[in-house]
Amino acid sequence: MASKRYSLSGKLIMLFFIMAVVFVMLVGGGIRHAFQGHFKENIRPHITQYLDYVRADIGTPPDRSRARELADHLKIEIQIFDQSGNWSSSGRLTQINELDIERSFIINGSQFFHVEDDTGRHYLMVRDRDTTILFNVPNVRDHRKGFKGWFPLLILLGLLLVLYYATRRVFAPLDTIKTGVEKFGTGEMEHRIRVNRKDELGELADSINTMADDIQQMLDAKRQLLLAISHELRSPITRTRVAAEMLDESKNKEQIIGDINEMETLIEELMETERLSSRHTKLNKAPHDIASLINEVVQTWFNEAGITTALPNKAIKLDIDAARIKLLLKNLLDNAIRHTPNEAPPPEVHLLTDNEKVIISIIDHGIGIEEQHLQHLTEPFYRADPSRQRETGGYGLGLYLCRMIAEAHGGQLEIESSADEGTCVRAIFFSKQK
Fold it and tell me: What are phi and psi of 88, to 5 degrees?
């Protein structure tokens, strides 16, 4: 799955969020500027005029009982600081020396100050000689830093969350399409993308499925053609072998028979790889002792090669197609012998178990393989030797066929090698089907 940083839905959400923030800042800033201008020019003079009337009604010196009546009737808070003491209609006294003055203005000759205390409450303050009066109108400015100030932000976050899941739902088929394309890339051409949508993504999935159908048909046609040609080649090759055997002994006869053997091997490998590539191929599985199969292959085809084996004493049985596993072992051992110099020790075969794994390791002490070639060795017709010199033998199908056989049994083929240090090929099988 693509990282969220690069996902299409993530980019859309981020773009929406940025646009939403910019929109809120521009609109909110414009409204705030307009409201502040309107408040300053139209509303504030009325409020201060109103409070000036209240201050006049309280009298000079301030009448605290009258201030109490006005505070209760008008639902405002009044605080008085004078020579008679400090008094508050709410019982809460503000520390005058801790007030921050934001701005000041004059109404009817009286200077008012817009102040804020350390708790965030806002007041209008008027001073007259030794008397200071604070007026506060609740629910106008006092609660702007409370929960209500966060409410629009919470709504915005909620909308973003809903939009995120809605966007994810719209683009959810992209994950299914990506998974399908990856399966096609690994050779699972029978897979089909299931997207129940009638929009562009549904059409894209249908187009990919149609493409997969066409590719599958071409591959099936190619496979059938290759099998047919390989089968038809066997008859003339058999006739050629019979004719060659009737020739007098000579180097030319040996060369001809050798070429015929190579062609037969190539045809056999081509047919077997195409059979294993087909999804309809069935393996003739039965329980077999792997150690016995290894000994049988070594004694039948490589009895004089000096191959050393390290096999456990107890039987290790797997549910396998014995004929194909023998072909795998024969190809791997033949490959190891062909790349082992005469002066080097002969190849080795090791069999061991690791939990549910059964590992067959075939080790040669040849010249090794450079690292850049390792990942391509099991590809069909790939050769690390680009010049295709005859002394190296083979057509690049042996390891590919071995990989196909291992994977057909639910296993895998691993190759480790270093230049001038030899090569180790491991055929790994599982005692329980994965």
Answer: -140, 135
- pLDDT score, position 140: 45
The predicted model gives 300-310 an average pLDDT of: 89
Tell me: cis bond preceding 61? Omega within 30 of 0 counts.
Answer: yes
Angstrom CA distances, 30 to 25, 27, 34, 144, 299, stand at: 8, 5, 6, 18, 92
Residue 326 has pLDDT above 70, yes or no: yes
Give the sign of the dihedral formed by CA 66, CA 68, CA 73, CA 79: positive
Lowest mean pLDDT: which of 127-136, 181-190, 380-389?
A: 380-389
Is 332 or 261 the better-scoring residue by pLDDT? 332
**Best CATH choice for the domain 200-276 from the list 1.10.630.10, 1.10.287.130, 3.30.750.24, 1.10.1270.20:** 1.10.287.130
Q: Across residues 20-27, what is the average pLDDT?
A: 72
pLDDT of residue 37: 56
Q: Where are the domains of the chain?
A: 8-136, 200-276, 283-430
∠422-427-432 over CA atoms, to 5°?
Answer: 155
Range from 144-158, 236-250, 288-302 that averages highest in pLDDT: 288-302
What is 283-430's CATH topology?
A: Heat Shock Protein 90 (3.30.565)
Handedness of CA 57, 60, 66, 70 (dihedral sign): positive
Residue 191 phi, psi (nearest 5): -70, 145
Q: Which helix (H) or strand (E) holds 49?
A: helix 44-58
**Beta-carbon contacts of residue 139 (< 8 Å; ≥ 6 apart):** none
Instruction: Please say whether the beta carbons of 361 and 424 come within 8 A.
Output: yes
